[in-house]
Specification:
Beta-Lactamase, 16 helices, flat, five-stranded antiparallel β-sheet, 4 domains, about 600 residues, alpha+beta, Four Helix Bundle (Hemerythrin (Met), subunit A), 12 strands, Helix Hairpins
Length: about 600
């Protein structure tokens, strides 16, 4: 009779399953007996013990209330009556749960002494306070000790009963352990014997195939497997032999084309101007180009095959690489201006970095590529642009102020001589001058923050104080627009290290934007919560939200959303807010869904943390 591998496995597994079924049935029977014993422990005595404990706690608070009554009559009386009701309720529950011998007598003693205790307290209420604590020591204290002792006797009686029930359960458990253990050991021994015999017949042909596979992996294709089996393993050995023959026929395949493609890929990698560092899924460096060697000051032959953190020695870059490998998504710094700054050849060079994943056709993560792009010239261009804006704004501020004063004086002196059209033109000129002045002030503030010339008066300040100040400044405007403010701050929110005036300005700007894009009946919520070593403060509205194409550049200069509500702004408020928060070692970002509102969030370090 020829047995297939399937028949052998089913025979072995069936025998083991049968033995397991027998052990399981015996174990369930013993567990049921053990559960019955345990149920007796819990159902008969646990409620009485809980009632006794609560009566003791209530009596102790009543005793405290008596002493408190001697100092403050009304407060002590209220506490005594409240706990008197609690003790009475638990006494009634204990009387409804009489399950053991002697419990009824103890409950009767508790009932009588508790009634005596309350009666004596009522008598104490009529005793003048001039007697001091003498009535308590002579009447109340002995009665309290008697009723508390009776409640303790109730607890001890039920605990003793539970100990006896536990001993019975332990005896049942001991018998169950020995019986189940004995049957289980026998089943294991028998199952092992059957499994070893059948496993040997199954594994031997597989071992031969495994040995032949190792030879092929080592490059030796002149192998052949002889198992002598007629089952599925014999068929597998025949197919393996056919595969080995096919591999031998391809052994002399010309691999020059493959090598040429590899050399071509290597040449492309080496010719790219941006720095490239390739890391596999195990965080080992597998390739890099000369630009990356120059930027990171490492040599490819020294770090190839080593862990990326050992090669880079830069925690920030390693975190970006790890985030990409773990998530399989592109990873870049949270702030667009966050760059890697290094000193090379006496000059500071700035590199923008991003990590891209490399996947195969099955979307399996293969590697991550760190791209280092030189943005030094762009940084310098931004610096020159900021200096130009600052200089131009400073030079324009004085003549614009002079023009504004002149126009206002002209309007005040000759207002009566102007006709309606002239007055409209004059009002429009004054409005435009104010808008230009606000724009120049914002530009000057932004340039001061970017250059580090704006002083920050950092102090420990409660978050609630800044939020309330910002809300109060705009409450009248919100009420006129029919919009409600809600402040939701956690009670245990710690103080933060911040310049209160600057942070209040940021909150005012965010709240003003929220009001601008909200409608009557909407709600604007300002909330705060602690996350790690910082406080997250959010301003959320129920407005139209921010289109997705604007969300990545909403904090750039002069960016405004195309809408009717956006008219009149300079497009610098969020840019200034971002620079202020950065100066506090914080971050600011926006979460928005078009049509569902926006939530702006920024972080500030707590006062007890080191920025």
């Amino acid at each position: 009779m020829t047995w297939t591998v399937r028949t052998k496995i089913l025979l072995a597994n069936g025998t083991v399953l049968l033995l397991l079924g027998l052990v399981l049935g015996w174990a369930l029977t013993n567990i049921q007996n053990l559960g019955s014993a345990s149920e007796a422990i819990l159902s008969e005595n646990y409620r009485s013990i809980i009632a006794a404990e609560n009566m003791i706690n209530g009596l102790e608070r009543m005793d405290s209330a008596v002493l408190l009554h001697l100092q403050n009559r009304e407060q002590g009386l209220q506490q005594f009556r409240r706990n008197q009701n609690q003790v009475s309720r638990w006494l009634a529950r204990a009387q409804d749960n009489i399950t053991i011998e002697g419990e009824e007598t103890v409950l009767a003693r508790i009932d009588s002494t508790f009634d005596l205790y309350t009666v004596r307290f009522d008598s104490l209420l009529q005793t003048p306070s001039t007697y001091g604590t003498r009535p308590y020591e002579t009447t109340m204290l002995p009665t309290f000790q008697a009723v508390r002792g009776a409640a303790g006797d109730l607890r001890n009686l039920n605990q003793q009963t539970m100990v006896q029930a536990s001993e019975r359960a332990e005896s049942v458990a001991t018998r169950a352990i020995w019986s189940v253990g004995g049957i289980g050991v026998g089943a294991i021994v028998l199952g092992l014997v059957i499994s070893v015999v059948l496993a040997g017949r199954i594994v031997r042909p597989i071992q031969k195939v495994e040995a032949a596979t190792q030879k092929i992996a080592a490059g030796d294709y002149d192998v052949e497997v002889q198992t002598g089996a007629t089952d599925e393993l014999g068929s597998l050995a025949d197919q393996f032999n056919d595969m080995a023959a096919e591999l031998r026929s391809y052994r002399d395949l010309n691999i020059e084309k493959i090598m040429a493609e590899q050399r071509k890929s290597e040449a492309i990698l080496q010719s790219i101007d941006d720095g490239l560092l390739v890391v596999n899924a195990d965080y080992d460096v597998i390739n890099m180009n000369p630009t990356a060697e120059w930027v990171l000051e490492i040599r490819r032959d020294e770090v190839e095959g080593h862990h990326v953190l050992e090669a880079l020695r830069n925690e920030r870059l390693f975190q970006q690489i790890r985030e990409t490998i773990e998530s399989g998504e592109k990873s870049a710094p949270s702030e667009p201006g966050d760059t890697l700054t290094v000193e090379r050849e006496g000059d500071l060079r700035h590199f923008q970095f991003v990590v891209n994943p490399v996947r195969d056709a099955d979307e399996e993560m293969l590697a991550a590529i760190l791209l280092l792009r030189d943005v030094t010239e762009l940084q310098e261009l931004n610096r020159l642009k900021s200096e130009f804006v600052a200089t131009a704004s400073h030079e324009l501020k004085t003549p614009l102020t002079s023009i504004g004063m002149s126009v206002r004086l002209l309007n005040e002196r000759h207002e009566d001589a102007f006709d309606a059209r002239d007055r409209e033109l004059m009002a429009a000129a004054i409005d435009d001058i104010e808008r230009l002045r606000a724009l120049i002030d914002d530009l000057l503030d932004l340039s001061k923050i970017e250059s580090g010339r704006m002083e920050m008066d950092i102090e420990s300040i409660p978050v609630g104080l800044m939020c309330e100040k910002a809300v109060e400044a705009l409450r009248a405007q919100a009420e006129d627009a029919g919009i409600e403010f809600e402040v939701d701050l956690r009670d245990n929110l710690p103080a933060v290290k911040a310049d209160p005036n600057k942070v209040t300005w940021v909150l005012n700007n965010l709240l003003s934007n929220a009001l601008r894009y909200s409608e009557a009946g909407d709600q604007v919520c300002i909330s705060g919560r602690m996350v790690g070593g910082s406080v997250h403060i959010s301003v959320q509205d129920e407005g139209a939200g921010i289109p997705y194409e604007y969300q990545s550049k909403i904090f750039d200069k002069f960016v405004q959303i195309d809408s009717d509500q956006a008219s009149g702004g300079t497009g610098l408020g969020l840019a200034i807010a971002q620079e202020i928060i950065h100066a506090h070692d914080g971050r600011i970002w926006v979460d928005s869904t078009p049509g569902e509102g926006s939530r702006f969030t920024f972080t500030l370090p707590i006062a007890s943390a080191t920025p």
